[in-house]
């Protein structure tokens, strides 16, 4: 699931003009209050998001973040969540926070890769880090420092705020038995995954979420990737396609971001800053737990409804991996900031992958 | 690392009598304060822990929890951390919180399995869940509800508060080439792992952390398990043993717990309750990130110092797995509460493992 899909799915009609009536000012403490007045100031903040109302997984996670901040601050920092399109369109979340239209935003870093090419390296990479590895890099491997550095010129402070874990390879109406089967395949798959498909001889056809089902059913596309069983079941994709392929090589994890306008951030007292940071970390873990549990349950339901789960052949995965490495390197080389991030990140991830071989991977394999 | 080791490592000399001079009462708001007085009440709480001062990983995580609560509450809930032995011995943390000697505690659930046999199922199981799977079960699979139910009769509210991820199989001065090599092996390895070793024909020799190095060097023991590279390097075990075996079949993860005295909990206003819960979730993720990064770095250092990393043979791991399954089942059957937990948990984990086969495990394998 990427860029234009979310855009149209959420309805772009309700545009930024809806902001006109909003009051951006924080409430000032009344005269005569205690000397701790500054700490008692109340802030009413807006959080724009890339998600439709009640969107499973990531949308629910954004709501959890706002509720946590409201509860922990005892109402001193009230965060109101806006669905995509309510104040600004889904893909303008980063811009809106950057220019101060909203104090906060929640979205996926790769949605603004057109503006900030390095952003996708904090989000998802084909054959790249899973959630655990991305978190280790971000919080102990220098990732967050780089991310803050990359967003600073835009006046935005980023925090990791949610992860999907491993996704699936997608829904197919044609069998994939060899690399040749990608030739001429019409697939809806955006981003770096789409670039890989093009290099494999396929044709990328992008479209909003609402059109995928019909496109699959009519044969306008042969295949589509969305998120994982939890969100895919909700969209009903199994009713329009034959095979559900694994594993999700194109996105072994997607990390979502909380954006905070830097000028607004500096007006917060230290306790509220700490509350925002902890709420983001809470959601970062909780959303992954949610996806792991719900994806498992949804796949069981899909299988009960007759969905055939297939694994991409080794030969195909090997070729996809080679092509993905070229695509990621090319993407990094095209932008000096992205190149700097990828140089540090790729070296660190290589060390993490080597360590995972000895323990994490082995436990999966011997448990059988 | 388990029970008695921590006990002696931290020095049991400073006993619970040190509590005599402590004031357990929270500060009351002065008369004349605003109508929000109850929310402005200040609480001074003690948190006893099972960890020596500045203990890498888990000990640092406990300090992080206290700092987060102090910062987020703006000093309204001040948590003071006590190292093992300062107020109560390492293994009496649960008891101390249960009887209200301290309002909070941080330790490992399986330290009190003698009192609460079901506790270890929320902590670590041989060939059991990794950190990600344990978290999905706890926070979305009914685990936390069971954990709260199990601790309620003791007046303790538990929260997951930290994880180690996959540990290592330990340090050996004898090669393990077949299941027969466990016969007569003298190994320091407590808990369920120790029970497995005994069934394999080995001899479990338990001793405190401070004695392990000399015991290895003098041949009093042939092998020892501790935690993982990060903590093992700090203890210098590589200087007294030949081989470092992987994977950590006995503990694919250890989850740590925050304990809160239930009566004390009920005195907290809602905002402070939310702050405590979010701080625990923050540490739950952050400590895993810390272990993943630092274990990787420490193993690199160990290898630079000439440590030979070996993998246990498949034949050995298969047999260990069979025996571990018997040991876990027997442990659950011996206590009705543990049996209830394990019945629910084992069914849920089986579903999670099956899902992991398709995606998480496959990504590790194809990434190569």
From TrEMBL, chains A, B:
<feature type="binding site">
    <location>
        <position position="225"/>
    </location>
    <ligand>
        <name>substrate</name>
    </ligand>
</feature>
<dbReference type="Pfam" id="PF03480">
    <property type="entry name" value="DctP"/>
</dbReference>
<keyword id="KW-0479">Metal-binding</keyword>
<dbReference type="InterPro" id="IPR018389">
    <property type="entry name" value="DctP_fam"/>
</dbReference>
<feature type="binding site">
    <location>
        <position position="251"/>
    </location>
    <ligand>
        <name>substrate</name>
    </ligand>
</feature>
<dbReference type="GO" id="GO:0055085">
    <property type="term" value="P:transmembrane transport"/>
</dbReference>
<protein>
    <submittedName>
        <fullName>TRAP transporter substrate-binding protein</fullName>
    </submittedName>
</protein>
<feature type="signal peptide">
    <location>
        <begin position="1"/>
        <end position="20"/>
    </location>
</feature>
<dbReference type="GO" id="GO:0046872">
    <property type="term" value="F:metal ion binding"/>
</dbReference>
<dbReference type="InterPro" id="IPR038404">
    <property type="entry name" value="TRAP_DctP_sf"/>
</dbReference>
<feature type="binding site">
    <location>
        <position position="188"/>
    </location>
    <ligand>
        <name>substrate</name>
    </ligand>
</feature>
<keyword id="KW-0732">Signal</keyword>
<dbReference type="InterPro" id="IPR026289">
    <property type="entry name" value="SBP_TakP-like"/>
</dbReference>
<dbReference type="GO" id="GO:0031317">
    <property type="term" value="C:tripartite ATP-independent periplasmic transporter complex"/>
</dbReference>
<feature type="binding site">
    <location>
        <position position="167"/>
    </location>
    <ligand>
        <name>substrate</name>
    </ligand>
</feature>
<feature type="binding site">
    <location>
        <position position="226"/>
    </location>
    <ligand>
        <name>Na(+)</name>
    </ligand>
</feature>
């Amino acid at each position: 699931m990427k860029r234009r899909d979310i855009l149209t799915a959420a309805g772009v009609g309700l545009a930024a003009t809806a902001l006109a009536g909003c009051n951006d000012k924080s409430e000032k403490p009344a005269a005569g209050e205690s000397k701790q007045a500054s700490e008692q100031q109340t802030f009413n903040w807006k959080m724009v998001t890339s998600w439709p109302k009640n969107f499973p997984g990531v949308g629910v996670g954004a709501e959890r973040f706002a509720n946590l901040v409201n509860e922990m601050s005892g109402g001193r920092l009230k965060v109101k969540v806006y669905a995509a399109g309510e104040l600004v369109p889904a893909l303008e979340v980063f811009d809106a926070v950057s220019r101060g239209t909203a104090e906060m935003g929640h979205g996926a870093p790769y949605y603004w890769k057109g503006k900030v090419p390095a952003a996708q390296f904090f989000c998802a990479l084909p054959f790249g880090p899973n959630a655990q590895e991305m978190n280790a890099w971000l919080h102990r491997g220098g990732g967050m420092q780089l991310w803050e550095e990359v967003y600073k010129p835009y006046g935005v402070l980023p925090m990791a705020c949610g992860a999907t874990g491993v996704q699936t390879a997608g829904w197919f109406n044609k069998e994939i038995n060899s690399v040749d089967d990608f030739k001429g395949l019409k697939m809806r798959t955006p981003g770096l995954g789409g670039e890989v498909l093009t290099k494999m001889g396929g044709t990328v056809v992008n479209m909003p979420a609402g059109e995928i089902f019909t496109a699959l059913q009519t044969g306008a596309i042969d295949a589509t990737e969305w998120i994982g069983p939890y969100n895919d079941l909700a969209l009903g994709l199994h009713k329009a396609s034959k095979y559900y392929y694994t594993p999700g090589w194109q996105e072994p994890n997607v990390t979502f971001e909380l954006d905070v306008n830097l000028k607004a951030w500096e007006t917060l007292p230290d306790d509220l800053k700490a509350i925002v940071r902890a709420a983001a970390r809470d959601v970062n873990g909780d959303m992954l737990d949610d996806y792991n549990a719900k994806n498992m349950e949804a796949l069981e339901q899909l299988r009960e409804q007759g969905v055939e789960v297939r694994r991409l052949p080794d030969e195909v995965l090997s070729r996809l991996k080679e092509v993905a490495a070229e695509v990621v390197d090319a993407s990094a080389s095209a932008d000096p900031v992205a190149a700097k991030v990828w140089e540090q990140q790729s070296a660190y991830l290589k060390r993490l992958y080597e360590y995972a071989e000895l323990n994490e991977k082995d436990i999966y394999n011997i448990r059988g």
